[in-house]
Amino acid sequence: MFHCPCGGSYPPPQLVLAGHPFDTVKVRVQTAPHGKFKGPLDCLLTTVRREGALAVYKGVAPPLLATGVINRWAAVLGG
User: I need a surface site. Which of 8, 22, 32, 41 has the fewest CB within 10 A?
Assistant: First the structure.
């Protein structure tokens, strides 16, 4: 099990991985033409059916890298 020595002050990568599908669905619903999706659940189900389960993780690399960089600098600068 991953243990974050920062005491919960900085989000570990697991939080990025857990939250990214929600962000993906939110952005797709917001940017889709009106009427394409009935709501977030319809967007999620349509995306998974058409593109596969990993489609909700498209674009996850930049937030993961940013979290790593931020955590590293916070540890260096914050002690």
Answer: 8
Give whole-number Cα distances, 13 to 26, 58, 75, 79, in Å: 20, 15, 15, 20
Query: What's the residue count for the chain?
Result: 79
How many C-alpha atoms does 10 have within 13 Å on its Cβ side? 18
Q: Are 20 and 60 in contact (CB under 8 A)?
A: yes
DSSP-assigned states of every residue in 14-60: HHHHHHHHHHHHHHHHHHSPTTS-SSHHHHHHHHHHHH-GGGGGTT-
Q: Is 4 helix (H, G, I), strand (E, B) or coil?
A: coil
pLDDT digits (tens, 9 = 90+) for 21-73: 999 999 999 999 999 999 999 999 999 999 999 999 999 999 888 887 777 77
pLDDT of residue 12: 73
pTM, 2 dp: 0.73
